[in-house]
Predict the 3D structure of the following.
Amino acid sequence: MKSDSALSLLAALAQETRLAIFRLLVRAGCDGLAAGTIAAELSVPAATLSFHLKELKSAGAIRCTRKGRSLVYRPDFSVMGDLVNFLIAHCCEGLEVTATTQRGPMP
């Protein structure tokens, strides 16, 4: 993943409604959710939801497919995995990675 893609994903998720949408879709898993279900679950007006879904889709965080008359949204787990790998790349250069070093120092 390149820096510009990572920045786009992080920017898309750095907004309260979009983060809530993404987290809801992650809980739904690969089956995804219809836009109407997302709107009802989060109490978000359709126009507002449409804007936020467009931003998440444009950044690559989610995918959309048509199922009958509904648009079904799913998280793109492979892209998000790439983002996590990008963020932690080179984090432990020269260190042996253990569960402790992955979590960081204890307070």
